[in-house]
C-alpha cells in the first residue's frame, strides 16, 4: 500500500505546484523509483477520466478515500496491471470493481470509442499516445548484442533486423529491431514489459529510453580514463559510461541523497559495474584542482531540469508565469553546474543534456556558457540525426516524439579548443575556461577582467621583486666593503 500512498502524495504536491512530477518522484526516497514513476505518470495522464469515474460511482463517499489516493488505486484496478496491495485495501477496491468498470464502459459508449486512450482530451492523446517504443540498452559488461538478440528470439520474440528509418520502430506484439543510430539499443512494441524478464533481472539489459542513451554514447570516454557523472541518479547513464569504458579507469558519480545513492549502488552492482566510486556530496562543492579529481578528462552533466520532454509530464494548462520563474531558476542552476564543470584542468570533453524541450534550459544555457568560457567549442553531432538544436546551435541534438520516436531531449558536446590544452593550463596557470561560476552578468564580467589582468600583474610583480632583491644585494656588498 506504500506505493499508492506515496503516489497520491506526489500527485497532490504536483497539483499544488510544489514541484515537477519527475523531481517529486526522485526526491521521494521510495524504494522502487521506476514503479512509482510509472504509476504517477499514468495516473496523472488519465486524471480527468479517473475523477469522472470516481465521482459518478460515489466511491469517495462509500470508501472514505481521498481523491488522489482513489485515483491511483482506480487506475491500477481498471487500466494498469492490477492492484499491487493486499488485505483490506484490495478487498475494498475489488468490492467496487464491477461498478467502476461499468461506469468506464458507459463513458466509452457515450464518446463512441473503444480504447482508454481515446477518452483523453485531444492534446493529451497526442502526448500519450504517441505510444513510444519500449527501448532497452544491451549491457555489454555482461553480454553482447548478438547474444541478447539470440536469447530474445528463443524466448518468442521476432527479430526484424536493424532499423533503416526512424519509423521502423512502430512495432507490433513481439517484434523488435536494432536501433538505427545506437548499435546497443533495441526497440520493442510500446507495452512490452521486461521487469520480470531474466535479461533484465540479471542486468543484461537496461530499460532506458533511446534519447537517454545519447549522452554517454556521444561522450565516448576511452577505457582507462577518469570520468565524472555529475548528477548521477538513478544510474542508467553511469552504467552506460562504465560499459563504454569497459570497466577500466575511474568513474566518479555524485548525488546529494544517500538513499538514492544506495539504490544506485544496487543498480550498478546488478549491471556489473566495478570502476565506479560513488560520492555523497554536492558536485558544485567539489574542488576541480584536488588530487582526486584534477585528472578528470570527461564529464557527463545531466542536471535537474523541468522534465518537460517526458511525455507523461506535459501539462498545457500550467501557470505560465510560475513556469517562467521556475525555468529561470533552473537555467541559472544549470549554468552554474556547466561553468563549474569546465574548471577541471585536464577536461577534454563534456556532454550537457536535459530531458527538457525549453530553449531556456538548453540552447540558452549553452550559449551563455560558451560566452563565459571561450576556451571551449561545440562539437557537431551525428549528421544523420533527424532533429537539430535550435538556430544557431545546430551542432547540438534535440529529440522528440514526432521526429525521433523518443521522449523530448537535448544534448550538446563541448570540447576544449585547440590552444587551450591541459598542458598549457598546468604550465601557465588558469585559462579562461577556469572562471568562477557567474552569478550575474556583472559578476561574470568582473571575473573575466580579473583573470585577464592577473597573469600580467603577477609577471610585473615578479620582475619588480627581482630588481629590488638585486639592489638590496648591491647595497649590502657596498656596506661590507
Automatic annotation (TrEMBL):
Q: Which GO terms describe its cellular component?
A: nucleolus
Q: Name one GO biological process term.
A: rRNA base methylation
Record-linked InterPro entries = MeTrfase_RsmB-F_NOP2_cat (IPR049560), MeTrfase_RsmB-F_NOP2_dom (IPR001678), NSUN5_7_fdxn-like (IPR049561), NSUN5_RCM1_N (IPR048889), RCMT (IPR023267), SAM-dependent_MTases_sf (IPR029063)
Q: Where is the active site?
A: 355
The record ties this protein, via Pfam families, to: Methyltr_RsmB-F (PF01189), NSUN5_fdxn-like (PF21148), NSUN5_N (PF21153)
Record keywords: Methyltransferase, RNA-binding, S-adenosyl-L-methionine, Transferase
Task: Using the UniProt annotation, give all residue ranges assigned to the region (Disordered).
Answer: 422-481
Q: What GO molecular function annotations does the UniProt record carry, in alphabetical order?
A: RNA binding; RNA methyltransferase activity
UniProt lists compositionally biased (Basic residues) regions at 465-481
Q: Where does S-adenosyl-L-methionine bind?
A: 231-237, 255, 282, 302
Concerning CDD domains, the annotation shows: AdoMet_MTases
Q: Which residues form the SAM-dependent MTase RsmB/NOP-type domain?
A: 124-417
The UniProt entry, under PANTHER family, shows: 28S RRNA (CYTOSINE-C(5))-METHYLTRANSFERASE (PTHR22807:SF4), NOP2 YEAST -RELATED NOL1/NOP2/FMU SUN DOMAIN-CONTAINING (PTHR22807)
Indicate the family of this protein: Belongs to the class I-like SAM-binding methyltransferase superfamily. RsmB/NOP family.
- Name of protein: Probable 28S rRNA (Cytosine-C(5))-methyltransferase
Amino acid at each position: 500500500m506504500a506505493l499508492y500512498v506515496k503516489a497520491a502524495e506526489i500527485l497532490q504536491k504536483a497539483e499544488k505546484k510544489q514541484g515537477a512530477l519527475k523531481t517529486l518522484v526522485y526526491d521521494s526516497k521510495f524504494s522502487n523509483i521506476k514503479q512509482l514513476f510509472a504509476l504517477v505518470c499514468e495516473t496523472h495522464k488519465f486524471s480527468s477520466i479517473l475523477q469522472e469515474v470516481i465521482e459518478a460511482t460515489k466511491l469517495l463517499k462509500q470508501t472514505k478515500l481521498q481523491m488522489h489516493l482513489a485515483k491511483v488505486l482506480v487506475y491500477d484496478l481498471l487500466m494498469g496491471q492490477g492492484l499491487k496491495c493486499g488485505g483490506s485495501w484490495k478487498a475494498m477496491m475489488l468490492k467496487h470493481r464491477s461498478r467502476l468498470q461499468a461506469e468506464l464502459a458507459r463513458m466509452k459508449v457515450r464518446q463512441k470509442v473503444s480504447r482508454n486512450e481515446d477518452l483523453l482530451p485531444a492534446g493529451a492523446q497526442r502526448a500519450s499516445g504517441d505510444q513510444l517504443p519500449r527501448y532497452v540498452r544491451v549491457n555489454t559488461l555482461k553480454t553482447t548484442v548478438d547474444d541478447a538478440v539470440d536469447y530474445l528470439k528463443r524466448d518468442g520474440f521476432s527479430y526484424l533486423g536493424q532499423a533503416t528509418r526512424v519509423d521502423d520502430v512502430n512495432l507490433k506484439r513481439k517484434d523488435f529491431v536494432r536501433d538505427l543510430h545506437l548499435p546497443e539499443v533495441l526497440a520493442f512494441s510500446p507495452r512490452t514489459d521486461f521487469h520480470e524478464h531474466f535479461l533484465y533481472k540479471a542486468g543484461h539489459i537496461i530499460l532506458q529510453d533511446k534519447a537517454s542513451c545519447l549522452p554517454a554514447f556521444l561522450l565516448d570516454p576511452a577505457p582507462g580514463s577518469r570520468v565524472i557523472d555529475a548528477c548521477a541518479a538513478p544510474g542508467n547513464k553511469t552504467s552506460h559510461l562504465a560499459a563504454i569504458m569497459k570497466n577500466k579507469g575511474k568513474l566518479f558519480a555524485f548525488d546529494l541523497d544517500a538513499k538514492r545513492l544506495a539504490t544506485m549502488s544496487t543498480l550498478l552492482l546488478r549491471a556489473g559495474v566495478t570502476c565506479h566510486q560513488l560520492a555523497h556530496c554536492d558536485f558544485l562543492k567539489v574542488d576541480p584542482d584536488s588530487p582526486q579529481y584534477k585528472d578528470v578528462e570527461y564529464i557527463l552533466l545531466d542536471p535537474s531540469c523541468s522534465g518537460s520532454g517526458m511525455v507523461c509530464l506535459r501539462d498545457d494548462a500550467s501557470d505560465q508565469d510560475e513556469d517562467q520563474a521556475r525555468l529561470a531558476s533552473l537555467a541559472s542552476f544549470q549554468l552554474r553546474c556547466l561553468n563549474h564543470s569546465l574548471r577541471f584542468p585536464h577536461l577534454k570533453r563534456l556532454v550537457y543534456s536535459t530531458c527538457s524541450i525549453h530553449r531556456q534550459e538548453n540552447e540558452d544555457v549553452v550559449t551563455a556558457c560558451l560566452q563565459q568560457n571561450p576556451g571551449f567549442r561545440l562539437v557537431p553531432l551525428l549528421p544523420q540525426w533527424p532533429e537539430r538544436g535550435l538556430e544557431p546551435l545546430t551542432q547540438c541534438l534535440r529529440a522528440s516524439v514526432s521526429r525521433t520516436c523518443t521522449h523530448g531531449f537535448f544534448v550538446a558536446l563541448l570540447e576544449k579548443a585547440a590552444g587551450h590544452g591541459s598542458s598549457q593550463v598546468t604550465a601557465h596557470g588558469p585559462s579562461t575556461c577556469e572562471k568562477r561560476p557567474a552569478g550575474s552578468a556583472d559578476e561574470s564580467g568582473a571575473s573575466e577582467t580579473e583573470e585577464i589582468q592577473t597573469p600580467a600583474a603577477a609577471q610585473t610583480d615578479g620582475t619588480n621583486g627581482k630588481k629590488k632583491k638585486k639592489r638590496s644585494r648591491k647595497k649590502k656588498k657596498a656596506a661590507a666593503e
